[in-house]
Amino acid sequence: MGDYALEVKGLRKVFSKIAVNDLDLKVRSGELYALLGPNGAGKTTTLRMAVGLLNPDAGEIAVCGVDMKTDPQGAKRLMAWAPDEPLIYDKLTAMEYLEFVAGLWTLPAAAARAEAEALLRGFDLWDRRSERCEGFSRGMKQKVALAGALIHDPKLLILDEPLTGLDAGAARQVKDMLQARTRRGATVILTTHILEVAERLADRIGVIQAGQLVAEGTMEELRTQFGAEGRTLEDVFLRIVGAEVA
What we know:
alpha/beta, 9 helices, 6-stranded mixed β-sheet
């Protein structure tokens, strides 16, 4: 396996049918990579295997060169995962939740609190830090969950639909944060059905269909490859997956 933030080779998962079909994927360090595909294409299954939440039936996974099979703890310490549904402890305050997550990563208390404050301020939650999360809106819970994913400064951040439930202002905060992280050298992989977001943010885009990577490249590379010069990502995406484009 090569020196990438994430590299998967021959990845396969079968439920009642094949969900991921001998997938090869390489994501470079320091890039923001958008993984797109129609519903049921295998995006979330792929990412859940990449972060160790689901065992593959076959294939290899490496995170920053660390093999997930032989050193799962080492691989997981290098990354963070945020699902589309925020999973937080509602009875904790926002600050308590971040301190709890920091403790799981064995971060020093002073450093954890400083990072928690920076994240809460960055997500415009500092004034709500002492309120229990059970009273937060879905969008606020999403921001707390993202802050929890970032508390240990992961080298690889994997996000499944990170903008779901966020209003325009909160979505801007998240997008700014993702770009700031990649500028600092972190790698971000995200799925999204908001293709305009992928078009604006992603350094490279991969498209999965039927569990296989069917297209990959920069926006310009995809336009050239699929004869869609000057078109939006929506137009290109629909060409790739075989849907009719007006």
